Amino acid sequence: MYEVIIEKKFSSAHFLRNYHGKDEDLHGHNWKVQIKFRGPKLVQPEEYLVDFAEAHQALENVLKKIGYKNINEIPPFTRLNPSAENIARWICEEIRTIFPAFPPHSVTVWETEDGAATFFPVEP
Fold this sequence. Notes:
124 residues, Tetrahydropterin Synthase, Chain A, 22% helix, single chain, alpha+beta, four-stranded antiparallel beta sheet
């Protein structure tokens, strides 16, 4: 089994609805995203699991949608709470549309240096 990991950072603001604490008001983070791809076979003849350049570009394109913005103003977060968990799921779904034949194994979103949430898509 092989695993490829890519990471990118972005900055943006958000607030949590129905949360009665300091994160209820608009505030910003320097986020980090990690995507893991897993598989038993390498692409031939190149002998790689996932093209690093394509994976990084795909993640960069997804993060452009929320980077340097108030995430609450970006669909689906206009109705969905922009928690790290929901952002991880959204990123996974966006990447799956780009790589439908090879979806991520997991997406982890760090909201702080020491706090992260991971989404594992359930395969049918």
